[in-house]
Amino acid sequence: MPPPLLLVWTAVQDAQGRVLLARRCGARVADGLWNLPGGAVEPGEDLRAAALREVREEVGLELDPAQLSSLGVSSFDSFAGTANAAGEVGSAVRGAAFFFRARARQGEPRPLDKTDAVQWADLAQLPSGCLPWLPEALRLHLLQGARLTQQRGAGQAVQWTVLF
Q: What residues of the chain score a pLDDT lower than 50?
């Protein structure tokens, strides 16, 4: 099994509380699915710097680092078999996802690196075609304030546990 992944995801919210979603395009994982801006932390990179970089690269927004807040972390251990929008199946992955929230931003979102569309989505009405774990991650970390969660499984069969 490969070494654990460190990921960052940022819930950029507008004045109405909607979250910014980006549809992945040309990505190795979850191609064609809606997700928060984010991705892998580069070796030696600070988590906050990684979140800011991913948002800038994927949707073109400049975020104020002082306005970036932590929503918590989720460990994940997904089994082989997670499929993307084209039905291609991936291999087992494990690691930790660090969730952030940003409200202040500069610029207007636009699709850039590994994205082909962006949209503001109401938390109660996320679009079809989201990454399977996204609705539950937003519910637990953004709406309910969970600080530490654990995910096990793959696709629609992910089981969540709130640890704190």
A: 84-85
| Distance separating alpha carbons of residues 127 and 140, to the nearest angstrom | 18
Give the span between the Cα atoms of 35 and 43, in whole angstroms. 23
Helix/strand/coil (H, E, C) string of the chain? CCCCEEEEEEEEECCCCCEEEEEECCCCCCCCCEECCEEECCCCCCHHHHHHHHHHHHHCCEECHHHEEEEEEEEEEECCCCECCCCCECCCEEEEEEEEEECCEECCCCCCCCEEEEEEECCCCCCCCECCCHHHHHHHHHHCCCCEEEEECCHHHCEEEECC
CA distance 119 to 100: 18
In this structure, is the dihedral angle defined by the CA atoms of residues 106, 36, 72 and 137, taken in order, positive or negative? positive
* pLDDT of 88: 53
- The set of residues, in sequence order, having a beta carbon less than 8 Å from that of 15 and lying 6+ positions away, is none
For the chain, domain boundaries: 5-162
pLDDT of residue 84: 47
Residue 84 has, within 13 A of its CA and on its CB side, a CA count of 16
How far from chain centre, in Å, is Cα 109?
A: 16
Confirm or reject CATH 3.40.50.300 for domain 5-162, answering yes or no: no
Q: Tell me whether strands 38-40 and 105-106 are parallel, antiparallel or unpaired.
A: unpaired
